[in-house]
Design goal:
The complex is a heterodimer. Chain A starts with a helix and ends in a 5-residue tail after the last helix. Chain A has a domain of about 55 residues. Chain A has 28 helices and 17 strands. Chain A has a 6-stranded parallel sheet with strand order 7-1-8-9-12-17, with helices on both faces. In chain A, strands 10, 11, 13, 14, 15 and 16 form a 6-stranded mixed sheet that branches. Chain A has a 3-stranded antiparallel sheet with strand order 3-2-4. By secondary structure, chain A is of the alpha/beta class. In chain A, about 40% of the residues lie in helices and about 10% in strands. Helix content of chain B is about 40%, strand content about 10%. Chain B has 26 helices and 17 strands. In chain B, strands 7-1-8-9-12-17 form a 6-stranded parallel sheet, with helices on both faces. In chain B, strands 10, 11, 13, 14, 15 and 16 form a 6-stranded mixed sheet that branches. A 3-stranded antiparallel sheet of chain B has the order 3-2-4. In chain B, helix 22 crosses helix 23 and helix 24 packs across helix 26. Chain B is globular and about 75 Å long. The chains are: A alpha/beta, B alpha/beta. Chains A and B meet through helix 1, helix 2, strand 4, helix 7 and helix 9 of A and helix 1, helix 2, strand 4, helix 6 and helix 8 of B. Chain A: This is phospholipid:diacylglycerol acyltransferase. Chain A: Its EC number is 2.3.1.158. Chain A: GO terms for molecular function: O-acyltransferase activity; phospholipid:diacylglycerol acyltransferase activity. Chain A: It is found in: Membrane. Chain A: InterPro entries: AB_hydrolase_fold (IPR029058), LACT/PDAT_acylTrfase (IPR003386).
Chain lengths: ~675, ~675
């Protein structure tokens, strides 16, 4: 302002330059007006406009980079990778095409649990506009937008295990059903791409998509899925000049396909009426990838408390979110309510009881697995054989047989020192009146009352056999429904007519393989990753509406190499399925002519040792042994392609074993 | 940034004032100020520069940011409001909702058969230029973005082999299977989606709803040879029949899918190796009804102009899909030539050529549509209101007395005169002579690589064919095409036939090339089956074209083009070189309705078992909005049509939904056609 005053002074003094004077007058006007205007303007600019400016700037830069990225020749990423890592090996499809392999046998994919997409065909008001949009798979966008609505539509009827009234959610069909689970997360896509390299296409590949929430027989009842698979396999064999199909089931698909093989030969109305030679005529090989033949311990904790580190693959996808409050405060309860309506989860409860999974003081794995995961992981194939021997001395015998124990001390004590209160006895005393709280969420825990919860904890230790009693005890409705569709025992006499019922079809210990001596069965799975095998639980100080049991994450083994971490005992496996479950049937139960395999179908074990991706550029790795990532394992893909192109198991090199599965199989006393 | 900018701005305004005052006699008063001033001046200049540059860049950013923010805001609001608006639209969009309340339930499984160009195609194996497109769509969906990114590569991959009509070496492009195949052929361009939604409402889902996707570029028999598409369809129908408690299927073919399904009907009952070996009772056992939508039974005249010059107003379905693209210079300046080169490798285009020759389509001086009135816009309002009937009829007659009937029979005429004059005034056709004359072709080697077959023709013969005063009917047309596109016609002739059978018992009609021509095949022996012809009427549809030689005589140029300058006064059927008749914008009524109205009506030689046929026409009512539109593709969303289909799928017979429903002159037209039945 000092300027102003001074200028007025000069103005009043005699001025000679008229022109300048005029200008000065103008300026003076400006002076009185413009600062006000300017300051107003600039004030506005500084807030709202600079926001706009900033957004515009970011957008422009982003577009510019995007433009650069798009104009970049496609070879650059590869070039960069090569510069860092040295020349890339050819993907197996390209390599084998150079060897002259071409299309031969048609291929059938059977996806596993949770990896198949589900879409909405009919829904309630809240799902308006989602017709034929994916509810499961894809981006899971709806899960974020309307979580309760989503959970409601993903649930099944808790009495029938079929559709709830007014809701129809159906599996996506075709290869798109499970090629990618979510954007960028491949499941079958890599295998499909490699098969396409040697000439496979839509008419020689078939994705047997099914609704993985239903029990196996119900997929036929509701969707006629089994009939559809049968008709498609027949068509592919007919249109490809009588070439038999190679079936590639993954994860739970393995059990589903076991069920299918029994179903297709069983007479109608229960079965498909294909006759006793159907499998022999139509199937060349069944290449099971990561098959939970004998179940997975994870499913127990899943049913019991919806926990289990990374049980639901869903959680690995949206890790942060399930633990937070999208569903309000009761995420777990909602999830539990939803997953408990899915019968298929019960197909993976450990089968074979104590004979297979071990008793209170005994387990097939015993002490032979090294849990020092870190050392194991980073080593290449050659070293894995040696390390267990070195560390063997340090290791205690782990009681893997006790799948659930309450308290760490209980888990480690000898069985004679544990005081147990009999479950059923106590339950008689418990008041059967439901402790009806005003929880608006249905889980069966609220029906069973505090006494029973205490009784559960007092029993202290559960083996694979008594785990069934436990589950029957805490969730009777669920198990009653599941009991009609699945069975978990070992057959004494396979010729007993009761084994013609479909509930036994997916249990390899209660079925005979079909009469097809030319067929081949492969068990292909990853090894070298610690896999959940047993749990330490605790009773939570329950608020009204929560699940009363929790994995005791404070239970830690002493040393770095201990198998107990965060309340979970780990054993060898592919992160989801323990080796025992994936390999035992091929290593023992079906090896040679046994009562489970009367026609002597050759069974091969192909293990793939896990090697994590060396750097970020590799994505999920080409040598991974993890349950889902193994679908991108080059060695596995090569095996699959060779078999599809006509090779036999012998030509592949027979068994290929890293783990101690044969030793464990020795220890299991299974009548053959 | 912004604060920085402010700092620069403020001094500027203050300083400018100082500037002037200081240039007057200021110096003595305050020396120190003078020093200040010089510094200020330099600063000012800098500031001015800064200011100028920044304000440009900054305001650019500002505008972008502003637009983005507004856009997001609107998008957000739109998404917030969407649920409510959708809720209001539903009852209108969904005839199924109403029918469901009436207690309608899906009983018969439904098979959808898409037509030409509406199905998606994806890449399974390609040349290096198509890297990264494995299992991505080339056609439909996002596929057209590839057209923009790498046009030549895209065209190369969509072409078929020039001689076999199958895959070119090293390229495998396959149809997208399942419902994804055709429900959204381009984003926002609904084809089957509305229908599928409605079917789902009354209980349909994956197990009783099937989309028979096939590669629409191939000839019909080749889809079986290469992809086993017919076998797949057969097995699917059998499965659905069994899995749904032995309920027969209802088939809904659209456009070219109609001819495809006719082919299937014959194929499935023919013994192998040529056929599917289903035995003579297969259709009777498995099919309840065929609800044809916009059927092109007897071909479409559009296909001719498409082959001849890749033009045809809105033929080129390409263009309908990506309108801006082809007309602009994406493919260089020769978009049409490229399109022609690609589409001439597609055998299926030939299946759409007019069938039945002059008997059906009319000759030089006669056509079945002779009494047609072209004032579409006016006529449609009054014509069917009973009160105005008399008035209007007399009106129409007056129009006719004034004018000669349009000579629709001349599907191609060169020059307007040739399309109007009486045939006696035209020179006799000398095509045969030209053919003989130029049997030994002098190849025009100066053009280098031959792009289209036109380059292999001598200029002279091109000019002779296109000489003014020549006209071609549906019969002589084939001579013309044989002449201008010999390779394509030879290839296609092994797969399609376009005549009328004299004696259907002739064993030669067992060959598959006759199966898709309704005039050369017998319907299967299935007296309980029903056939519907459902199509839109009331939209001007291309019926014949006036051509001219294109002025340019350069190489690699299509020598003929539609003479868009030929026009007549309002109310005429001739507009920009095209004669219009009644139809659904692509298929003339004649082609869509004739078989149901006459060829198959009752027991005829084409329909020996007397299958019931129904003509269901859907009147176009202006304003033609989405749900009432009757245009060739949009009719799939027509609520009246959907309701009919739902009722049939739920078990109604043709009689129950009201039998024939006719608005057009199809009955009179078929009267006039002299076809032996």
């Amino acid at each position: 302002m000092s300027f102003l005053r001074r200028r007025k002074g000069t103005d009043s003094s005699k001025s000679q330059n008229l022109r300048c004077n005029i200008v000065k007058e103008d300026e003076k006007n400006n002076l009185y007006e413009s600062p006000r205007k300017e300051s107003y303007n600039s004030k506005k600019w500084s807030c709202w406009d600079s926001c706009c400016w900033f957004i515009g700037f970011v957008c422009s830069v982003w577009w510019f980079l995007l433009l650069l990225y798009n104009t970049m020749p496609a070879s650059i990423p590869q070039y960069v990778t090569e510069a860092i890592k040295g020349p890339l090996t050819d993907p197996p499809g390209v390599k084998l095409r150079k060897e002259g392999l071409t299309v031969n046998h048609p291929v059938v994919f059977v996806p596993g649990i949770v990896t198949g997409g589900l879409e909405l065909w009919e829904g309630h008001q809240c799902a308006e506009g989602l017709f034929r949009k994916r509810l499961w798979g894809g981006s899971f966008g709806e899960l974020y937008k309307r979580p309760l609505c989503w959970a409601q539509h993903m649930s099944l009827d808790n009495e029938t295990g079929l559709d709830p009234p007014g809701i129809r959610v159906r599996p996506v069909s075709g290869l798109v059903a499970a090629d990618y689970f979510a954007a960028g997360y491949f499941v079958w896509a890599v295998l499909i791409a490699n098969l396409a390299q040697i000439g496979y296409e839509e008419k020689t590949m078939y994705m047997a998509a099914y609704d993985w929430r239903l029990s196996f027989q119900n997929t036929e009842v509701r969707d006629q899925t089994l009939s559809r698979i049968k008709s498609n396999i027949e068509l592919m064999v007919a249109t490809n000049g009588g070439k038999k199909v190679v079936v590639i089931p993954h994860s739970m698909g393995v059990l589903y396909f076991l069920h299918f093989m029994k179903w297709v030969e069983a007479p109608p109305p229960m079965g498909g009426g294909g006759g006793s030679e159907w499998c022999a005529k139509h199937i060349k090989a069944v290449m099971n990838i990561g098959g939970p033949f004998l179940g997975v311990p994870k499913s127990v904790s899943g049913l019991f408390s919806v926990e289990a580190r990374d049980i639901a693959i869903a959680r690995t996808f949206a890790p942060g979110f399930l633990d937070k409050d999208v569903f309000g405060l009761q995420t777990f309860q909602h999830l539990m309510r939803m997953t408990r309506t899915w019968d298929s989860t019960m197909s993976m409860i450990p089968k074979g009881g104590e004979t297979i999974w071990g008793g209170l003081d005994w387990s097939p794995e015993g002490s032979s697995f090294n849990c020092g995961a870190k050392t194991l992981r980073n080593n290449s194939i050659n070293n894995t054989d040696q390390i267990p021997n070195i560390n063997l001395a340090n290791m205690k015998n782990v009681n893997y047989g006790r799948i659930i124990s309450f308290g760490k001390d209980v888990a480690e004590a000898h069985s004679s020192k544990i005081e147990r209160v009999d479950l059923l006895q106590d339950s008689m005393k418990a008041d059967m009146l439901a402790n009806l709280t005003n929880c608006d969420i249905w889980i069966e825990y609220h029906d069973i009352g505090d006494h029973r919860i205490k009784a559960v904890a007092d029993y202290k230790v559960y083996t694979a056999g008594s785990i069934l009693d436990l589950l029957h005890f805490v969730s009777p409705k669920l198990m009653a429904r599941g009991g009609a569709h699945f069975s978990y025992g070992i057959a004494d006499n396979l010729d007993d007519p009761k084994y013609q019922h479909y509930k036994y079809w997916s249990n390899p210990l209660e079925t005979k393989l079909p009469d097809a001596p030319d067929m081949e069965i492969y068990s292909m799975y990853g090894v070298g990753i610690p896999t959940e095998r047993a749990y330490v639980y605790k009773v939570t100080t329950a608020t009204d509406c929560s699940i009363p049991f929790q994995i005791d994450t404070s239970a830690e083994g002493g040393s770095e190499d201990s198998c107990l971490k965060g309340g979970v005992f780990s054993a060898d496996g592919d992160e989801t399925v323990p080796v025992l479950s994936a390999g035992l049937m091929a290593a023992k139960g079906w090896r040679g002519k046994t009562r489970f395999n009367p026609s002597g179908i050759p069974a091969y074990i192909r293990e793939y040792s896990h090697a994590p991706p060396a750097n970020l550029l590799e994505g999920r790795g080409t040598q991974s042994g993890a349950h889902v990532d193994i679908m991108g394992n080059f060695a596995l893909i090569e095996d699959v392609i060779r078999v599809a192109a006509g090779a036999t198991g012998k030509e592949l090199g027979g068994d290929h074993v890293y783990s101690d599965i044969f030793k464990w199989a020795e220890r299991i006393n299974l009548q053959l | 940034m912004a604060s920085n900018f402010l700092r620069l701005r403020k001094p500027y305004y203050v300083e400018s004032t100082i500037n002037c005052s200081s240039s007057s006699d200021q110096k003595p008063v305050n020396l120190s100020f003078g020093i200040n001033e010089t510094r200020n001046q330099t600063k000012k200049r800098q500031a001015k520069e800064h200011h100028g540059r920044r304000s440009c860049l900054d305001s650019c950013c500002w505008v972008t940011g502003y637009l983005c923010t507004t856009w997001w805001l609107l998008l957000f609001l739109y998404h917030c409001c969407l649920p409510f608006t959708v809720g209001h639209e539903v009852p209108e969009l969904m005839p199924a909702a109403r029918l469901k309340r009436e207690g309608l339930k899906g009983i018969h499984p439904v098979v959808l058969v898409p037509g030409i160009v509406t199905g998606g195609l994806e890449l399974w194996e390609g040349k290096p230029c198509a890297d990264g497109l494995f299992r991505k769509r080339l056609w439909g969906g996002g596929g057209f973005t590839q057209l923009l990114k790498r046009p030549l590569c895209w065209l190369e991959h969509l072409s078929l082999h020039n001689e076999t009509g199958l895959d070119p070496p090293g390229i495998r492009v396959r149809p997208v299977p399942g419902l994804f195949g055709a429900d959204y052929s381009a984003p926002g361009y609904f084809v089957w989606d509305v229908l599928v939604k409605n079917l789902a409402k009354i209980g349909y889902e994956g197990k009783n709803l099937h989309m028979a996707a096939y590669d629409w570029r191939l000839s019909f028999q080749n889809t079986e040879v290469r992809d086993c598409a017919l076998s797949k369809l057969k097995s699917k129908i059998e499965l659905m029949y069994r899995a749904n408690g032995n309920k027969k299927v209802v088939v809904v073919p659209h456009s070219m899918g109609v001819a495809y399904f006719l082919h299937f009907l014959k194929w499935v009952e023919t013994p192998p190796p040529m056929g599917g070996g289903g035995g003579p009772g297969w259709c009777a056992e498995h099919i309840k009804a065929i609800v044809n939508i916009g059927p092109s039974f007897l071909g479409v005249p559009k296909a001719v102009s498409n082959i001849l010059s890749a033009e045809g107003k809105d033929v080129a379905y390409f263009r309908a899909m990506a309108p801006g693209v082809l007309d602009s210079g994406t493919l260089g300046l020769r978009a049409l030539e490229h399109v022609m080169r690609v589409s001439r490798t597609w055998d299926s285009v030939v299946s759409l050529m007019p069938k039945g020759g002059e008997t059906i389509w009319g000759n030089m001086d006669w056509s079945p549509e002779d009494e047609h009135v072209c004032e579409f816009s006016k006529k449609r309002y009054f014509r069917f209101s009973p009160s105005d009937n008399n008035v209007n009829n007399s009106d129409a007659k007056q129009v006719f007395r004034v004018k000669d009937p349009v000579k629709y029979g001349r599907i191609i005429s060169f020059g307007k005169a040739a399309s109007v004059l009486h045939s006696s005034q035209l020179p006799t056709t000398v095509l045969k002579e030209i053919l003989h004359m130029s049997a030994s072709r002098n190849f025009n080697s100066s053009c280098g690589e031959a792009w289209t077959e036109y380059d292999e023709m001598s200029r002279e013969s091109i000019r002779k064919i296109g000489a003014a005063d020549k006209a071609y009917t549906a019969t002589t047309l084939f001579d013309l095409l044989h002449f201008v596109a010999p390779k394509m016609m030879n290839r296609a002739e092994a797969h399609f036939s376009h005549g009328i059978a004299d004696n259907l018992e002739d064993p030669k009609y067992n060959h598959y090339k006759y199966w898709s021509n309704p005039l050369e095949m017998k319907l299967p022996d299935a007296p309980n089956m029903e056939i519907y012809c459902s199509y839109g009427v009331g939209i001007p549809t291309e019926r014949s074209n006036v051509y001219k030689l294109s002025p340019s005589n350069k190489c690699k140029h299509i020598p003929y083009q539609i003479d868009t300058l030929v026009d007549e006064e309002d109310g005429s059927c001739l507009k920009s070189g095209v004669y219009f008749a009644d139809g659904d914008e692509s298929v003339p009524v004649l082609s869509a309705g004739f078989m149901c109205a006459k060829g198959w009506k009752g027991r005829t030689r084409f329909n020996p078992s007397g299958i019931n046929t129904y003509v269901r026409e859907y009147q176009s009512k202006p304003p033609t909005s989405g749900i009432k539109s009757t245009a060739h593709v949009d009719i799939m969303g027509n609520i009246a049509l959907i309701e009919d289909k739902l009722r049939v799928a739920a078990g109604a017979t043709g009689e129950e939904i009201g039998g024939d429903k006719v608005y057009s002159d199809i009955l009179r037209m078929s009267e006039r056609i002299n076809l032996q039945l």
